Amino acid sequence: MTAVSLNFRFAPSPNGLLHLGHAYSALTTFEMARALGGTFLLRIEDIDVTRSRVAFVDAIKNDLAWLGMTWPEPVLVQSQRFAAYRQAARHLQDLGVLYPCAATRTEIQAIAAANNAGSDPDGAPLYPGRGHVISNLENNERIKAGQSHALRLDMSRAIEIASQILQGKPVQFSEIEDNGNIKRCTAAPQRWGDVVIVRKDVPTSYHLAVVVDDAHQGISHVTRGHDLFFATDIQRLLQVLLELPEPIYHHHALILDNTGKKLSKSNDATALQFLRNSGKSADEIKDVIKNARKRR
Question: In Å, how far are 13, 150, 168, 229, 250 from 183, measured between CA atoms?
């Protein structure tokens, strides 16, 4: 009998320096991989090519190595895999679940506000569906004129086809809870509306790139922050549609700042590099993380 390979990944975006929240996630993934006899992989998610910097990639590797983590080389870099994402998008187009959308962000926000449409789990205005922001005629004319456009998921159609593939069963995923128990969760992708799958500026979105690369790398366990729990709705739906393997998920708690918000680059969370340069040791950082886990 062939042994099943267990692969875990830490996948930061190189648009800033790592902070304690990243260290928490990376160490959680590294320790789980080691405990289960799996492999810890580093992946660079740099599809946002305008904000990504090589210097940040180097800093990420230095921070992780300082904390005692190792990984096999070469590291997968998403900006080098656009051809694979285009191929996956073509498969979705062949299924009839993607459609072009040339509506602007301002137009979408205005219609969503006027219709009190609500927001998706990321806080963005919920897209009201094809033809509801600009007419199909206007949309086609803009695209013919060369205006950039995204490809959105026809959510109703996608769920219908996924149900056919699963023979009437709902889209589900397995979640490892903090106590180690595994529960089966039912995904609710409809709460995202007609989400963007291929962005205007690059031939993919976060959701599409993640599932394509997880399958390519044989990722068996996806360990990440609880703020990405609802993203699993879309990613599991795409895995079903693209007939990709289903990993096991673990969404860990977050380290919060003094105001109760998660640590983030946008909130100027203190960088690991700064802590290291100020004299903090790797063991001190690990102790901070251990204490944060105890408080959960």
Answer: 29, 35, 20, 14, 10
Can you tell me the distance from the alpha carbon of 219 to that of 155, in angstroms, rounded to the nearest whole number? 26
Q: Which of 74-78, 115-119, 173-177, 184-188 has the lowest mean pLDDT?
A: 115-119
State residue 3's pLDDT score.
61
**What's the confidence (pLDDT) of residue 259?**
65
Q: Is 230 exposed, middle or buried (0-12, 13-18, 19+ CB in 10 A)?
A: middle
Q: Which domains are seen in the chain, by residue range?
A: 1-80+255-296 (3.40.50.620), 82-246 (3.40.50.620)
Contact, 210 vs 236, CB < 8 A? no
